[in-house]
Each structure stands twice: as structure tokens, then as C-alpha cells.
Amino acid sequence: MLSLKSIFALLPLLAPCHAAPTKRCSSAISSFDDVDEAVSSGCDITINSITIPSGQALDLSGLGSGVKVTVAGDVTFEGRQEWEGPMFIIDGDDITFDGAGHTFDGQGEAYWDGKGSNGGKTKPVGHLTATCLMD
């Protein structure tokens, strides 16, 4: 029969082992040209203040699993070209998105013609496409 002292000595061996959490890598988007590399890196992403060229989307599809996207500056979409959008795409498994109080400015006034979706200028529809987000 085991003594109480022996049982307490063995308890640490019975506890589940937890590896120390690993620090995730990080990547920054500071210009539109940085987007593809940041997405393909599989790292957490910080989006700084950037301008998205007219007729282009901020495409964050194919993010690695568990990626956290943090917005650290306002994102502005140039509104000079008529197109159908979407303007912003985010896709991946177990993604956390933190807007941190910043704005996505779609330049709606550039598309405003008083006709809504019933004619006039072609307007981005489906401004945002998002799948598999946590927050």
C-alpha cells in the first residue's frame, strides 16, 4: 500500500503536461503591396493605415488557422472606379478580427448618384465577405 507521502510525490506525474505557449509570428500590412505576402505568411497580421486602389479588394482569403488580424490604422478604399466589389474579403479557420476602433472608409460619396441600386453608377455590393471568424 502506498503512503500518503508517496501519493503526493506522484501527483505531478499524473497532471496533464502543458507545453509553454508558443509566440505566434506576426506580419504587418503597411501598403496594398504587402497584402499577399502577409496572408501567405500564416502569421498574425496587423493592418496599418492603408489605401486600397480603386477597383481592388482588401483580400485576406486563405488565412492560416488561428490567425489574429488587428487593425492599427484606418483603411481607405479609393472610390474612383465603378465596380461590383466586394471591397473586403476575409476567410480562414478560427480567425480573430480586432478592428480596434478604426474605420473602413468605402468612399460611398464617390458612388452616390441618387439612384441607389436601381441604376446609375455601378456600386460595390457585398462590401464584406467573411467566413469562419471567431470574433
Question: Judging from the principal axes of the Cα atoms, what is the shape?
Answer: elongated
Radius of gyration: 23 Å
Largest sheet: 6 strands, parallel
Count every helix, treating DSSP H or I runs of 4 or more residues as helices.
3
Portion of residues in helices?
Answer: 10-25%
User: Terminal Cα separation, in Å?
Assistant: 52 Å
The helix/strand series, from N terminus to C terminus, equals HEHEEEEEEEHE
Q: Report the uncertain regions.
A: none
User: How many individual domains?
Assistant: 1
Overall strand count: 9
SS-based class:
alpha/beta
Brief digest:
One of its GO terms (molecular function) is polygalacturonase activity. This protein is α/β, with parallel strands linked by helices. 16% of the residues lie in helices and 30% in strands.
Descriptive report:
It is a single chain. The protein has one domain. It is 16% helix and 30% strand. It contains 3 helices and 9 strands. The strands form 2 sheets. Strands 1, 2, 4, 5, 7 and 9 form a 6-stranded parallel beta sheet that branches. The protein has a 3-stranded parallel beta sheet with strand order 3-6-8, with no helix packed on it. Helix 2 links the parallel strand 1 and strand 2. The model has no long low-confidence stretch (mean pLDDT 79).
